[in-house]
Amino acid sequence: xxxxxxxxxxxxxxxxxxxxxxxxxxxxxxxxxxxxxxxxxxxxxxxxxxxxxxxxxxxxxxxxxxxxxxxxxxxxxxxxxxxxxxxxxxxxxxxxxxxxxxxxxxxxxxxxxxxxxxxxxxxxxxxxxxxxxxxxxxxxxxxxxxxxxxxxxxxxxxxxxxxxxxxxxxxxxxxxxxxxxxxxxxxxxxxxxxxxxxxxxxxxxxxxxxxxxxxxxxxxxxxxxxxxxxxxxxxxxxxxxxxxxxxxxxxxxxxxxxxxxxxxxxxxxxxxxxxxxxxxxxxxxxxxxxxxxxxxxxxxxxxxxxxxxxxxxxxxxxxxxxxxxxxxxxxxxxxxxxxxxxxxxxxxxxxxxxxxxxxxxxxxxxxxxxxxxxxxxxxxxxxxxxxx
Amino acid sequence: xxxxxxxxxxxxxxxxxxxxxxxxxxxxxxxxxxxxxxxxxxxxxxxxxxxxxxxxxxxxxxxxxxxxxxxxxxxxxxxxxxxxxxxxxxxxxxxxxxxxxxxxxxxxxxxxxxxxxxxxxxxxxxxxxxxxxxxxxxxxxxxxxxxxxxxxxxxxxxxxxxxxxxxxxxxxxxxxxxxxxxxxxxxxxxxxxxxxxxxxxxxxxxxxxxxxxxxxxxxxxxxxxxxxxxxxxxxxxxxxxxxxxxxxxxxxxxxxxxxxxxxxxxxxxxxxxxxxxxxxxxxxxxxxxxxxxxxxxxxxxxxxxxxxxxxxxxxxxxxxxxxxxxxxxxxxxxxxxxxxxxxxxxxxxxxxxxxxxxxxxxxxxxxxxxxxxxxxxxxxxxxxxxxx
Lengths: 388, 388
Hints:
NAD binding (chains A, B), NADP-dependent malic enzyme (chains A, B), metal ion binding (chains A, B), Malate_Decarboxylase (chains A, B), homodimer, metal-binding (chains A, B)
């Protein structure tokens, strides 16, 4: 009953969303920062005045950050290969999501973000294209690009461009999960160095979460892909997963989600594919923490997780307590990267950002571990953490 | 004296333009078309509601024109190789110009145009990149790309994309020149089929102007490049110029600008390089028409052309009478292309647009041959001409 009510209301939201998008004809639009109402305006904004700006920038290309959009712009780039939980649905279907991000960038961090969706899913081509279009932008937000391609693309672009590049599905998610976990562990009175954490999903988000938690010296981390727990003894691992196997699973165990969760302290679901049952949650240690982040349908609904004994439950959704969503992170990360002119968003900055988010809730509770994304302090606090 | 005053005021405009760009930090910004002020807004604009839009577009990609920015967006793309009259000054120096176009697109035609400047000048790479980023856009405005590369890029993209592609330096200029010429010839009482027209400059603009005038059965057309009059007997011609030689210069004459102008009726300057002297203008037929379109310094200043006997003089600048500038054209062309969902902007549409512009000045005079770019009728009138 509960489930069908949820799904009905989800359908109702979908219908409303379709109607809104149709009526507005999308969400992204452009606005002029200078007036162009008469000839005098145009002489400065366009010819002949703009010639002086171009001439100056020809000699001083780095001043583009001061005289052009570059100082405040981010390209939100997707190849449509891993859109929300919907999979490889292509550039047109990805576009409303990128427009949504652009609108959030604007409203929450006053960043001018431009949606770019690509008709190619070739790694080398994507790298070449992003590099070629980079001059107008002060940052690159990669979005909804499938693993493992996303790792290679991000790593190469970080190396080859002199503006910050972040794959938000990885790092935005990892930052908010770490922030939420730091405070959830406070609520249950456990230390990160002592807990066993199970991450279901070894895609973009799962990989980045495992890495940031390993950097935080989490007690024991198990990561699962579709074949089960990632372990050094497995022979079917990609290079990225072999790296995960080295970073995690010190006891080199194998098995499925039920095996992994038994006796663990924290469950972080970021796959959408593997559902967690009440029995699995019941098999965890007491005072367990459950972050069921699949969108729109969590790996386990919060009420079920709570009734199965979880002490703190978070989801990716805004209609349950403890939303953990990269929307709480990316506006502030890029605001900081632009304001502080950082060339790379480092692991240290990400961990600092997570701590800064956690610090905004000094007395966390079961139903309040991280600030609401409408918390006015959030963007500024994260932005301050993103500096060299 | 006159000249130094002009150049001082030009410097003053340049200084003001630099100050304005610095203060505003560029001209392009983003605005949300839907509210994202609270959770309910976000549920529709972003997750979970946007998932319904993405799911719908995965099945119906063509509906992107209705549900996303694609229905009203244009990418303004340059490789920075032929910026204004400044030459190959690169992507950063090109960016203020592209932002200026984006701002004009918005203010004059309510089109959401995105500046894209490229760090490559390789023809094949540019074609590949523009094709790859096309899904988010309803049209492609190529800008300030050097000839002859611009011809190949435009031709290939027109063939390979299903959205309208226009190199504005070519066709925006050709349309406004034809419009201006039709009315200027009315003023001087000459017929286009009887006049001799000299076009100085065989780059993007000169080539497109020659073609549109040939299609209008202009009496005789001579086009000059840096080596002089383009003629079939010349052996140094590129393929594009060989085509021009076939379309123009029926008497197969050679020589320089002075030779070409002697006894001609119309001078159209679009090179910036070759200056016209008063003596040359004096050697033209009576009631001559002079369009000195180089920006910011015309091939000959209007007062000099008039004192040397020209009957009608136009420039590319807004501070002289008879401004002929692609800004009068491109907002309407793309407004029409988007509204009428045309897949290609054809030669017929361009000639129709020129006639439509000319028709807005039913009684042209020496100092008023085309509508001001602030004429409210202009965009609508041009837009109506751009349909299948």
